[in-house]
């Protein structure tokens, strides 16, 4: 089985060096590493890190920051064209356990896409896959810590994807996404075409707290949004209705995915909830730009709905 790893590098040669070291120490060896360099400040240093490695590495200068979506999309395409059976996508600041790939590879018969558990730097589990619920004040994990399980959506860091998936649905969507959201869209696209996603408890990867990682560069987002012709609908920034997104670009990404993949029941429920929350915040005099928030939601939803109507829209992300 030929496994190609793909990393999108951005201005952090030390992170890249540590990750390459971790890949060198894997008990299940990769056949090739593809490094897509989005750096704007440390390009020469990243290339030096690559040259000093003993791994089989192909280095690609992306000529500026093209975003993680385009970087991973190109890396996936290169790996696919070069005959990879599986593509292992990795964030540059994540460090897989030495047996991470071995544990993932041992479970490829169970699903076309397999994922590791993500730990923070204090070795605490990050709850992206194993959500918690509160029952009378006591928290319980929705998914067992002792059993592997299927999920609907994965995060890029450490996911192992079968060549079969790429052959059917293509690569990451870099047309509508820049940094963040492309992995969720790809997950739902894979699910739409009948592929499954499986989390392996014994496969682990260490990743820093994502709060800082996903604080988006608004100017980069604006430039990307301008290419889509929606810059006039993008005021500087405002909170999502749950205050978990720092600017409206995140809202547009979310509602684009919703318009493209969610059921009409889910869509109606969401917009009813949105109107109620905006109204309540307005009544309680909480600072919120209601019209801007609403326009961002409608913009993203409209773009997603248009994609839903297009037949074989995934072809644009293929060769």
TrEMBL record:
Keywords of this entry: Glycosyltransferase, Membrane, Transferase, Transmembrane, Transmembrane helix
Where exactly are the transmembrane stretches of this chain? 261-280
SUPFAM superfamilies assigned to the protein according to its UniProt record, in alphabetical order: Nucleotide-diphospho-sugar transferases
Give one GO molecular function term.
glycosyltransferase activity
Q: Where is the Glycosyltransferase 2-like domain?
A: 6-150
Tell me yes or no: is Protein biosynthesis among this UniProt entry's keywords.
no
Q: Which pathway does UniProt place it in?
A: Cell wall biogenesis; cell wall polysaccharide biosynthesis
Q: Which Pfam families match?
A: Glycos_transf_2
So what family is this one in? Belongs to the glycosyltransferase 2 family.
The identity of this protein, by name, is Putative glycosyltransferase
């Amino acid at each position: 089985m030929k496994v190609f790893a793909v990393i999108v590098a951005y201005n952090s040669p030390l992170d890249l060096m540590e990750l390459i070291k971790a890949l060198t120490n894997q008990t299940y060896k990769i056949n090739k590493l593809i490094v897509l360099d989005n750096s704007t400040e440390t390009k020469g240093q990243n290339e030096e890190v690559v040259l000093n490695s003993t791994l089989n590495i192909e280095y690609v200068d992306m000529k500026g920051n093209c975003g993680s979506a385009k970087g991973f999309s190109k890396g996936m395409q290169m790996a696919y064209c070069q005959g990879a059976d599986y593509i292992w996508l990795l964030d540059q600041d994540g460090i897989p356990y030495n047996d991470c790939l071995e544990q993932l590879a041992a479970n490829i018969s169970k699903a076309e896409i397999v994922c590791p558990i993500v730990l923070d730097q204090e070795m605490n589990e990050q709850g992206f896959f194993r959500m918690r619920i509160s029952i009378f004040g006591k928290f319980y994990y929705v998914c067992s810590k002792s059993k592997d399980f299927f999920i609907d959506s994965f995060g890029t860091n450490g996911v192992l994807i079968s060549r079969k998936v790429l052959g059917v649905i293509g690569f990451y969507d870099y047309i509508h996404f820049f940094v963040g959201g492309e992995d969720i869209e790809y997950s739902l696209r894979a699910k739409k075409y009948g592929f499954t996603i499986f989390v392996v408890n014994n496969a682990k990867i260490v990743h820093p707290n994502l709060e800082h990682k996903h604080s988006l560069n608004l100017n980069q987002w604006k430039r990307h949004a301008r290419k889509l012709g929606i810059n006039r609908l993008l005021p500087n920034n405002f909170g999502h209705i749950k205050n978990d997104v720092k600017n409206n670009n995140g809202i547009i990404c979310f509602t684009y995915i919703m318009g493209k993949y969610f059921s009409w029941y889910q869509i109606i429920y969401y917009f009813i909830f949105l109107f109620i929350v905006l109204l309540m915040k307005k009544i309680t005099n909480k600072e919120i730009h209601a019209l801007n928030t609403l326009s961002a939601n409608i913009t993203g939803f409209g773009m997603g709905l248009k994609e839903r109507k297009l037949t074989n829209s995934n072809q644009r992300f293929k060769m």
